[in-house]
Amino acid sequence: MSARLLDGARVAASIREQLRPRAEVFAARAGRPPGLGIVLVGTHAASEIYVRNKLKAASDVGCRAELFRLPERATLADVLDTVRRLNIDEAFDGILVQDPLPSAMGSGASQAVFDVIDPAKDVDGFTPINAGLLSQGRSVLAPCTPSGVIALLQREGIAMSGSHAVVIGRSDIVGKPMAMLLLHQHATVTICHSRTRDLPALTRQADILVAAVGRTAFVRPEHVKPGATVVDVGINRVTDSGEVAALFPEGSPRLADFARRGSVVVGDVHPAVAEVAGALTPVPGGVGPLTIALLLQNTVTAAEARAGWSASR
Amino acid sequence: MSARLLDGARVAASIREQLRPRAEVFAARAGRPPGLGIVLVGTHAASEIYVRNKLKAASDVGCRAELFRLPERATLADVLDTVRRLNIDEAFDGILVQDPLPSAMGSGASQAVFDVIDPAKDVDGFTPINAGLLSQGRSVLAPCTPSGVIALLQREGIAMSGSHAVVIGRSDIVGKPMAMLLLHQHATVTICHSRTRDLPALTRQADILVAAVGRTAFVRPEHVKPGATVVDVGINRVTDSGEVAALFPEGSPRLADFARRGSVVVGDVHPAVAEVAGALTPVPGGVGPLTIALLLQNTVTAAEARAGWSASR
Predict the structure, then answer these.
(1) Three-class SS state of A70
(2) Which of the residues A116, A124, A129 would you substitute to probe the B interface, choosing the one with the greatest number of B C-beta atoms within 10 Å?
(3) B313 with B301: CB under 8 angstroms?
(4) Beta partners for B191?
(5) Cβ <8 Å between B202 and A189
(6) Pairing with A47, which of A92, A295, B1, B280 sits 20 to 30 Å away (CA)?
(7) Terminus-to-terminus CA distance in chain A, angstroms?
């Protein structure tokens, strides 16, 4: 184990600390705290945990978060109605619809929902206009996970300007906005994906390598230049004991975790990459807490911007 | 000279051929041709030529283009007023404000103007919502130059999927949308710019190299992998006889052009790259005509989409 661990949880805590006084000032001036409406459709074990964490984190920084539950059998129209009600409800500055929606709604459902969110309340940064402002380098509400990565790299002193950053993954919610944000930090940026030929030859050029593939331990030591900074966006729950045994060396505390809980959370980066990388975000405790911290930052920012107070940013 | 020349003028002509019947069908159904309003502020020699070419090309395919001239001393408010009038004028499906605006309007003027254009009439694809839809891979009106490059590569049979495309330049109107469009064609994409370290080492990896830097003959043979496809987006007018003599070999017809006219147009790619590249867009006659063809395509598409007729696309 040689890589310096980039402590996302600590940076997230420091971001939350800075949000608390902003939320207080807003509440004093507006007569109400910044408000976040979270829409959760159906029953999805991981979503329940994520939503609980978001609700708790919001109240910790002085925001008011409220959960709107819809049943598994809800229609797309039901979700759109809920979003439209939140759009016009002045008590809510941010609207988050927890992904994934029930698969019965069809593959385009999430985007259809994001498209009706008031861009001024779009704390996920998924609406087209916010994606466009991000691409043009003037976003107010940027997607939380890639913004969290930038905040982490900045606060950990990882130089981005002039570096070569390689992003594996081209999703609208992580890969593409991540590439744009790194570009605006003056990195040279390469975006790789499933059709990329000779991936290791490209990723080994990276000073900063961001893995956002959604495949357990996909990035292996041979993908990484010695000393590179590796950012692991993946959150994959592994329940197969053989798979876990192959991932972690004997004596690893992660094996004991697995024995106790029957599962472990593993990123998109293989644990052995820690022997090659210069710096690495752990999973859990790396990018995950930052995503929530940036969601809250977007909520406070949206509240201030809606009220016409942008000075505190 | 070994590189195959990618004949942008021919591909542009074929795109215009396909537009003519669409414009006719639209005119028959709507009782008026697709309409393009062009706003030109002040006197700018190159802009005059571009605008004249656009007006002529529009009428050639059966669109109606009208020029709205504002004096050099016009204010930003004057330009915004003109755009707002075109936004609500039903005879116009597309609005183009010719760049650059007079420098007295300030550096943010162009974006301020683009921001008020009705996205449904934004035939340049520069509004934030259209930039966002482009990033999300579902654009209707994409910026003309990068779309023109994709059309050229497709029609010339240059394989994009799985290739490594390197874009030099990160502007909102060429570099960034070019990268996104290549990504959606399943290329692995690298975006380089002025802060990029060891540019030749990166560009020599490119199967497809797009130069959008705005610097005369910037890309030299040492930047290019033998056999690569090189796309030259630059349009630079050179008036210095020493510079011209250094660019073109003795006996080149371009030297005779210069002797006759006192200037030549040179791209961002050095003429000697033709000895290394496998395929190359000439300047003039490469990307330039495609930009105009795609502007007209966007105008017809906007007309059809505004009328609710998207079947012909």
Answers:
(1) strand
(2) A129
(3) yes
(4) A189, B167
(5) no
(6) A92
(7) 38
pLDDT in tens, B211-231: 999 999 999 999 999 999 999
Quickly list DSSP for A139-158.
-SS--HHHHHHHHHHHHTT-
Note the pTM of the prediction, 2 decimals: 0.97
Cβ A294 vs Cβ A19: under 8 Å: no
**What domains can you pick out in chain A, each with its CATH number?**
28-120 (3.40.50.10860), 144-287 (3.40.50.720)
d(CA A301, CA A286) in angstroms, rounded, equals 23
Query: Under DSSP, is residue A257 helix (H, G, I), strand (E, B) or coil?
Result: helix
Note whether A161 contacts B127, CB cutoff 8 Å. no
Q: Give contacts of A179 with chain B, Cβ < 8 Å.
A: 179, 191
| Alpha helices (runs of H) in A165-240, residue ranges in sequence order | 175-184, 199-203
The Cα–Cα gap between A126 and A110 comes to 10
The phi, psi pair for B227, rounded to 5°, reads 90, -5
Round the average pLDDT of chain B to a whole number and report it: 96
Task: Quote the tokens at residue A141.
Answer: 């509400």
* Beta carbons of B162 and A197 less than 8 Å apart: yes
Whether B54 sits among the annotated catalytic residues: the reply is yes
Tokens representing B35? 């309409």
Per-residue pLDDT reduced to its tens digit, B43-99: 888 899 999 999 999 999 999 999 999 999 999 999 999 999 999 999 999 999 999
First to last CA, chain B: 38
A221 preceded by a cis bond (ω within 30 of 0): no
Secondary structure of chain B in HEC code, one letter for each residue: CCCEECCHHHHHHHHHHHHHHHHHHHHHHHCCCCEEEEEEECCCHHHHHHHHHHHHHHHHCCCEEEEEEECCCCCHHHHHHHHHHHHHCCCCCEEEECCCCCHHHCCCHHHHHHHHCCHHHCCCCCCHHHHHHHHCCCCCCCCHHHHHHHHHHHHCCCCCCCCEEEEECCCCCCHHHHHHHHHHCCCEEEEECCCCCCHHHHHCCCCEEEECCCCCCCECHHHCCCCCEEEECCCEEECCHHHHHHHCCCCCHHHHHHHHHCCEEECCECHHHHHCCCEECCCCCCHHHHHHHHHHHHHHHHHHHHCCCCCCC
Q: Which amino acid is at A286?
A: G
Measured between alpha carbons, how far is B223 from B203 in angstroms, rounded to an integer?
A: 6
Report d(CA A104, CA B140) in Å as an integer.
Answer: 28
Model ipTM value: 0.96
For B79, half-sphere exposure in the C-beta direction (CA atoms, 13 angstrom radius) is 29
Whether the CB-CB separation of B276 and B209 falls below 8 Å is answered with no
Helix (H, G, I), strand (E, B) or coil at A135: helix
Residue A189 distance to chain B (closest CA, Å): 5
Q: Give CA–CA dist A36/B290, Å, rounded.
A: 47
